[in-house]
Design brief:
The protein has 215 residues and is α+β, with helices and mostly antiparallel strands. The chain contains five helices and eight strands; from the N terminus they run αβββαβαββαββα. Strands 3-2-1-4-8-7-6-5 form an eight-stranded mixed sheet, sandwiched between helices. A hairpin with a 4-residue loop joins β1 and β2.
Length: 215
């Protein structure tokens, strides 16, 4: 994949992001959270650009040639490669919060099943779990962490609008599920974002187990 950089964009910064994305993707693929080339990952390069996975690549085998540069409107920069169809959901995070630097989207079995189970309710309310404290801003298990479940669609502007409506209503948002699809979460760096993703995977699995054992 040919990638050139516009004036002001550091190739070193881009490659550092690409390496971080590839490393995280390999680990998450090994957990089985990115089946059949699904999932997409991105990392902010500077105030106006992000590095993002090219559509359709095996997430367990990414290298620098599988990551491309986009602007924050989701347009390819300096390459003919095609970013993920869900790029708009990544750039929405970067435009909305200037301190967010990483977005991770995976398709684990737990995430997918939970999204279907709770879709009719429109959200999952996580309460009483000690691991809620792994989410930035949560300091006690006594708080309530609400994860919305948005209907699935291939029309990205519709999904972007649903996320905007949730935020404009003043509701906290640390992650969201898409029905029958997977989870999106983000953070100020790769370590924080991976912590969020791993904690949410654990919490969703606990909720599924509770319902299975209570049936």
């Amino acid at each position: 994949m040919s990638q050139t950089f516009p004036p002001g964009v550091s190739s070193e910064a881009f490659f550092a992001c690409a390496d971080a994305i590839a490393g995280a993707a390999k680990d998450l693929a090994a957990l089985g959270w990115t089946p059949a080339t699904s999932s997409n990952f991105s990392m902010r390069v500077d105030d106006s650009h992000a590095a993002i996975t090219i559509s359709g690549r095996d997430k367990g085998r990414l290298d620098r040639d599988d990551i491309m540069l986009i602007d924050l409107d989701g347009q390819a920069v300096g390459t003919d490669a095609r970013p993920s169809a869900e790029t708009a959901l990544h750039t929405q995070v970067y435009r909305r919060w200037s301190d967010m630097r990483v977005v991770l989207h995976t398709h684990s079995r737990t995430q997918s099943v939970a999204s279907r189970l709770f879709a009719a309710q429109g959200s999952i309310r996580l309460e009483g779990w000690e691991l809620q404290k792994a989410i930035t801003g949560f300091h006690t298990h006594e708080s309530m962490l609400q994860i919305p479940v948005f209907p699935n669609t291939q029309h990205m502007p519709e999904l972007v609008a649903r996320v905007e409506a949730w935020l404009d209503a003043g509701k906290p948002l640390h992650a969201y599920l898409i029905d029958g699809h997977g989870i999106y979460t983000w953070g100020r760096d790769m370590a924080e974002t991976r912590r969020h993703l791993e904690a949410l995977e654990f919490l969703l699995a606990c909720e599924l187990d509770l319902r299975r054992l209570s049936a």
